[in-house]
Amino acid sequence: MALLEVSQLDVRFALRQGEVKAIRDVSFTLERGERLGIVGESGAGKSVAAFSLLNLISKPGFIAGGSVRFEGQTLNTMSERGLRKIRGNRISMIFQDPMMTLNPVLSIGEQMVECLKAHRRISSRDARAIALDKLRQVQIPSPEKRLDQYPHELSGGMRQRIIIAIALLLDPDIIIADEPTTALDVTIQAEIMALLLDLCEQHNVGLILITHDLGVVSQVTQRMLVMYAGRVIEQGPTREIINDPQHPYTQGLINALPQMATPGEKLNQIRGSMPSLSNLPSGCAFHPRCDFIRRTDGQVRPACIEQVPGFVQAGNCQAACHMVAELQEDRRLKEESQ
Amino acid sequence: MIAFLIKRLMHAVLVMFVISVLAFAIQDNLGDPIQQMVGQSVPESERDALRERLGLNDPFIVQYVRFAKNAVQGDFGYSYFYREPALGVIARHLPATLELVFAATLIIVLLSVPIGVYSAIKPRSIISRFFMGASIIGISIPVFLTAIVLIQIFSIGITVSIFPESTSWGAWLNGFFSTQGSMPSFGRGYDLVHVIGHWDTNLASWNGLKHLVLPAISLASIMLPLFIRLIRAEMMEVLQSEYVKYARAKGISMRRVYFVHALKNTMLPVITVGGVQIGTMVAYTILTETVFQWPGMGLMFLDAINRADIPLIVAYLMIVGVIFVVTNTIVDLIYGFVNPTVKLTGKPA
Amino acid sequence: MTMKTNKAPSRLERFRDSFVWYSFKRDRTAQLCLAVFLCLVMAAFAAPLLAPTDPYDLRQIDIMASELPPFWIDGADEQYSLGTDAQGRDLWSIILYGTRVSLLIGFGAVILQALLGVTFGLMAGYLGGRVDAFLMRLADIQLSFSTLMVAIVVGAVVKATLGGAFYSQYAVLMLVLIIGLAEWPQYARTVRASVLAEKGKEYVDAARVMGLRSKRIMFRHVLPNTLSPIFVISTVQIANAIISEAALSFLGLGMPETHPSLGSLIKAGFDYIQSGSWWITLIPGAVLVVLVLSINLLGDWLRDVMNPRLYKG
Question: Does pTM surpass 0.90?
């Protein structure tokens, strides 16, 4: 049994205009110590997926179906009290913007100690000692001083280090990191990411990394999910997907990476933009932007417009596209002709 | 912190300067001390001589400096009506007003925080809706009207006879809605306990406390709904914030999330507004004290206006100015104490 | 800016498509409040038509008929549906006239506040620098002294300077001036805040680059974008102004009893409450509360709907 098993997760938002399905039918597993990437454009439902794992979706959102199982316990039906024992303790989170994440009126020490005290019977003195140890681990300069400082006295990079330290405080099994470096200066992004990876590896912590940055995912994770308009459209081992993407959307994402472009030429963009969740196109949600929707005779493939695609196995990967086999064939022919 | 203190002090001095100039301008234009000092029969030449001797013909600036010098030493001149130093008259009336404000503040703080927090945490519950509805009605009733209604209900008493008296339930309902007026609605009562100097307190005797009840509720009635709504709005905003979500993700108990993480951030803007509202409260004591004939500064001020007792009016303005400045400074200091971001920058971030 | 191919929608059509109208159609409280408010306004301004007697006409007053109770209490005279006050004036008539006075002062004071506040707020926000520092410091001081206090002091001083008789004669004008002067900082701060927010936006830079003069940029480009917060605080300010007027009148610094507003009616009636004639003070009081409450609820609803950036603390 996997450490974390998510199956057919379905999250909706009850808005005035009606229900909006934020994510649908999301399933994946995470093994102990494994690193999983969830990739997609903003609005694809990555963050909703991340927050729904710990049932932290705030109103008007709610989990409408499916299950999240952690060590055999179903988290999405668990009581708030039971969930509290898991949050921050067995599964901890790293939020996107370190400027907004720490409480401005509480000292760093307070915010670390309270987390330890919430999960362990421990004296304040011991809690501070542990906090200090974790601060050392995240390589903060003069850690003793930091405990009595307030968030506004620290830079963004330092704050994110502190948040990583808090995530590691109780030696969790899983860390969910929602765009952990997006809000930081480009110069320190790599540093923070390396630190996070290093510590996860050292402590054998599972990592769910949510990001829009395919480059990071390809370097860091073992397996990945690609999300589009609330659904997983491709999943499998990271290397296989990067080397041989099956879904046209994933192909588009990879081609759009700057390193894929020929110098001096335009970057390869996916035309159009992601549809709003309250107004999804019929059939495959990607079809209005898909380059392969027309057959060679110029006719639009009816299945793409009429039917939501299911997963098709391709190697160790799965892709939700009607044309996986045809596209594979096309690519093979192209390679042969070259 | 030092820079912050100095900045606050500068502001306080500036405010006091503006108030004193205004107060002096009032005195200069309205009060003719000669008229008060000598009778009608004194000839004009003698008046002029007296005017010259008292320095009333000096330039405005010179007179103002003299006025300010005296004011700093606590000399605001003689009250025309009481025939004694204006400051003494105020000192006699001050404790009554301070006790009233204190009692009202107590009511406001004790009620507004729990109600505001509760209705932010459970915005859809019936109790929250009730409080929100009641608070907007509360805001719409002027203080003096609240006071009058309270007097009618609890001091004069109302007899309800809209239900048929012949039936038992009708008689019961009539009795239920009728009140006997037993609460005092006039003055501070006879059983005041002397504390020190001019200070006789209402707080130490049953009769004194009873006299305090209706005025204090009236005075609190206008601020309480404002604070409930303010605390609720701020708290709801804070509850939406990332750091509250993060605190939940850390597995901290909801009680700690609400009362440590959220409430502390909620109270920052509330403290600022609170400082301004203390000033407003002093203004409302004029109304409350008038209705209840509460012998405090407010009633004294209104009487002074009606008697054109200029030195007393001026002294009142100056003292109230001092009260505003002092309370605002204290509130700013509390704000600086609660908000860690103030210390570094010297101003609230 | 208008599309040439399509006919530009008329103002009415645009309003009917707007979210404000949409949520008004769905909100019973807002509908009821607007209805009550409009009824009160119309009744007040039709007072000469609706009132059975003219309370300002001394010949129509019967001093023998004083302190008569309203119709549902024994001893009422059917000629006076809501009873009479201590001078024998018909309460129904005098409340109608009093409401008119209260509304007149409320609206007048708010117009003055808005004129002063918007002008100063635009100047402070747009010109910045010393003008801004001076105006905002002034607003700070005035607000820290509390607007009611300022109104009371100014009222007292003006009354003492000009004499009671003169003050009474021009009471409406005086109250509009006093309340208008006391409350302008509310507008100024709100307008300044939204000007500062707008100023950072590109269209203002664009207008400046195009060589428009600052006065024109302010009134044609920035001001329209500050309208919705102005609109929202105006409702609250009208309610406040009506209450302030009532408070001043209650203290004897407002409308004289011969020409009463709701506040001076309450004041006059208060003297008779101990003798059991509660209606003289409480019926005008109830009218005042209903009037202010309906405006406040409308203001609340508007703020929820328009959700503007308001000045805080």
Answer: no
CATH fold label, C29-50+80-306: MetI-like fold (1.10.3720)
Domain of B118, in residue numbers: 1-30+76-338
A195, A200, A193: which is closest to A179 by C-alpha? Answer: A193
Instruction: Dig out the tokens for A39 from the structure.
Output: 């990739």
- Displacement of CA C238 from its chain's centroid (Å): 2
Choose the closest CB to C161 out of B29, B321, B328.
B29
The closest alpha carbon to C230, from C293, C308, C140, C137, belongs to C308
| Helical axes C147-162 vs B310-338, angle rounded to 10° | 170
> In this predicted model, what pLDDT tens digit does every residue of B85-108 receive, in sequence order?
988 899 999 999 999 999 999 999
* Among A228, A211, A233, A231, CA closest to A220: A211
Q: How many domains does chain A have?
A: 1
The answer to whether C73 faces chain B, any CB pair under 8 Å, is no
* Residue A171 touches chain B, beta carbons under 8 Å: no
Which residues are registered as beta bridge partners of A207? A35, A175
d(CA A151, CA A104): 6
Q: What are phi and psi of A115, to 5 degrees?
A: -65, -45
Phi first, then psi: what are they for B167, rounded to 5°? -85, 155
Q: Which residue of C144, C154, C280, C310 is the best one to mutate when testing the B interface, meaning the one whose CB has the most B CBs within 10 A?
A: C144
Q: Is there a domain that residue A328 lies in?
A: yes
Q: At what angle do helices B126-140 and C279-306 cross, to 10 degrees?
A: 120
Give residue A199's Cα distance to chain centre. Answer: 18
The verdict on residue A275 lying in a domain is: yes
Tell whether A220 is covered by a domain: no
pLDDT in tens, chain C (313 residues): 334 445 566 666 766 667 777 778 788 888 899 999 999 999 888 878 887 777 777 776 777 767 777 777 776 677 777 777 777 778 888 889 989 999 999 999 999 999 999 889 888 887 878 888 888 888 877 877 777 888 888 888 888 777 778 888 888 888 899 898 888 888 898 888 888 877 777 777 777 777 777 777 777 777 777 788 888 889 889 999 999 999 999 988 888 888 888 888 888 888 887 777 788 888 889 999 999 999 999 988 888 887 655 544 3
Residue in C161, C251, C296 closest to B30 by CB: C161
Q: Which tokens belong to B217?
A: 């509720």
Q: Which residues of A touch B122 (CB under 8 A)?
A: none
Domain for residue B345, yes or no?
Answer: no
- Pairing outcome for strands A206-211 and A35-39: parallel
Count how many domains chain B has. 1
Report how far residue C239's alpha carbon sits from residue B136's, in angstroms, rounded to the nearest whole number: 12
Helices A124-137, A156-168: axis angle to 10 degrees equals 120
* CB of B250 closer than 8 Å to CB of A166: yes
Cis peptide before A60 (omega within 30 of 0): yes
Sequential DSSP letters for B43-68: -HHHHHHHHHHTTTTS-HHHHHHHHH
| Amino acid at site C89 | R
DSSP alpha helices (H): ranges in B181-257? Answer: 206-239, 242-249, 254-256
Q: Closest residue of B to C142, CA-based?
A: B15
- B250, closest residue in chain A (CA to CA): A88
Write down which chains contact chain B via at least 3 CB pairs under 8 A. A, C
Is B218 a member of any domain? yes
Residue type, B37: M
Separation in Å, CA C154 to CA B300, C47, C148, C217:
17, 31, 10, 36
Nearest to A285 by CA among A312, A235, A248, A240: A248
Determine contact: C246 vs chain B, CB below 8 A.
yes
Task: Say if B41 falls within a structural domain.
Answer: no
- Say if A284 falls within a structural domain: yes
* Domain extent at residue A264: 245-337
List chain C domain ranges. 29-50+80-306
The enclosing domain of B149 has a CATH number of 1.10.3720.10
Asked if residue B127 belongs to a domain, the reply is yes
